[in-house]
Amino acid sequence: MEEPLSIAVVDESNRFVRWERKTEVHRLRLFHRSVHIVLFDSRGRLVIQQRHPQKLTYPAHWDGSCAGHVERPDYPGGPDEGLDAVYLSVAQRELQEELGISAPLSFVEARGPEKGLHYEHFQLFEGTHDGPYIIQLEEVHAVKAVTAAEFDAMASDGSVLMTPLLRRTVSQLRGQGRFLA
Predict the structure, then answer these.
(1) 12-31 burial by CB neighbour count: b if 16+ within 10 A, else e?
(2) Is the peptide bond prior to 132 cis by the omega test (within 30 degrees of 0)?
(3) Which of 10, 64, 48, 53 shows the shortest CA–CA distance to 32?
(4) Residue 78, burial from CB neighbour count under 10 angstroms (0-12, 13-18, 19+)
(5) CA distance 33 to 24
(6) What is the CA radius of gyration of the chain?
(7) What is the pTM of this model?
(8) Widest Cα–Cα separation across the chain
(9) Positive or negative, the Cα torsion across 175, 177, 178, 179?
């Protein structure tokens, strides 16, 4: 029987290859599936989380609002069936697990692996929620909502760790004329 944290290794086209333990997927930097969620509060502040210091990747870094892997039990059919519904279901689950909330989510985009940035096929979702947030202590160290100016101050402070994907996501938002200082 597969361990509960096995995830689908996929090819460059996001097609299933095999099941593998999450630790091995990260150790070998294998393509796999995940979700990322960007939350704003009703004042337009971006909700960011600080990853737990014991995380396998980017420990103690500030990151997007919420993220998580698509795990073997998340697939009601085969590992390549109904992926849009699977991704949305996982996004909702991750919001509940990591932040203790439920919120309507809108699909933003699907992204494939990008050399030097990440090795995931993921769908990005967006939502709005004012908290309070009840963090999953094993995954999340802290959560806060920041203005664009506060984000810029954090990003320019060399002692503040941020994931490259958070920086990229904010850059893309700004390219759309959103989350401007």
Answers:
(1) eebeeeeebebeebbeeebb
(2) yes
(3) 10
(4) exposed
(5) 14
(6) 16
(7) 0.93
(8) 51
(9) positive
**Candidates 3.40.1700.10, 3.60.140.10, 3.20.20.70, 3.90.79.10; CATH matching 6-175:** 3.90.79.10
Give bridge partners of residue 136 from the DSSP assignment: none
Q: Is 71 left (phi over 0), alpha (psi -120 to 50) or beta?
A: beta
Amino acid identity for residue 42 in this structure:
S
Nearest Cα neighbor of 132 from 104, 99, 103 is 99
- pLDDT tens for 122-159 read 999 999 999 999 999 999 999 999 999 999 999 999 99
CB atoms within 10 A of CB 83: 17
